[in-house]
Amino acid sequence: MSDANQHIEAARTAFAEAFSPFDSLDLNGGGLADAEATLRELGELKVRHTGKKSALAEAKKMIGRVAPEERSAFGQAVQAAEKEITDRLEKAEAELNEFITAARIERERLDVTIPGRRPRTGHLHPITILRQQIEDIFVSMGYAIEDDREIETDYYNFDALNIPEGHPARESQDTFYTTGGFALRSQTSTVQIRAMERRGVPIRIIAPGKVFRRDTPDMTHVPMFHQIEGLCVDKGITMAHLKGTVTEWLKRLFGEDTVTRFRPSYFPFTEPSAEFDFSCFVCHGSGRVSSQQSAVSSEKDEDGGELFTAHGSQLAARCRPCKGSGWIELGGSGMVHPNVLRACGVDPAVYSGFAFGFGLERMAAMMFNIDDIRHMFENDVRFLEQFR
Of the residues 46, 192, 354, 383, which has the maximum number of CB atoms within 10 A of its CB? Predict the structure, then answer.
């Protein structure tokens, strides 16, 4: 055998020894990771035995140096060896790729008969629910909805609202002051002033939005809360219009049997002024709620008042929302002070108006039976899932 043919046999023998582990592949005994590792090893083997630096490549280079009468036979022998090596590599590579593809499909297979996961749907915040209900009522009564900036000047926060110098509301312990004479608005009355300046009169608006006061957070107070204020200015507006408006929207919200009452009060921006209450929507003004009890006992609440009284098989408990009074305090109201109208360029001798305002957190807490209003600001989806 010539040296050239010996070179071909040496290349064939070296490949057969290196390829022997791939002759009997047991793919069923391993997993996807093992098959992928084997495929990488096979690729390295292919480079070593068919690449540019392989023994087979060296044999190809020898074709030109072989005697002319042996050149044809030697070239055929090189091609035969190359085809044998290539066929075995391609067969093993095809088996591995087929196994890997099947394993990947099985791993990613989706059983369409398995019940799917129901996505968690969003829920409206109780403040949003209540605000939308109230806005819908007032829009149906002909009121527009206004909102404006939350950082205001002293003028719109206090001066235009007839709040005098030295008033406690101007102190830093009550109001969040920023730099340059600005402060976070402490009521949405600032929106009313700007709306009258921009739109003129007559005007009927409500101004819902966030307000800020330096309150220590507890079960009934937070430094940022929501407020709705209403304003109506026109010729011939009287206190009777205020009482009728407040009574009407409370009846639409809580029911036709709702009763309202007004108590004299004082606010710098209204004259006369009054706080308004409405009959409790739980006990309907009785101050008591009844429930069936097998045993009757009398207890005292934290204020020392009677909490339960027996009536046969019924136990009358003091109503929680109204604390047994039958009335729920809601907000303040009154006729717009002439100085406020003048600050907006409105002649109080021609026009008059009323205004009212109330907070949403306390009302929402009563309506949705929330014992601590801080829960409304914790961003806990489990809390929101209670509301529809």
Answer: 192
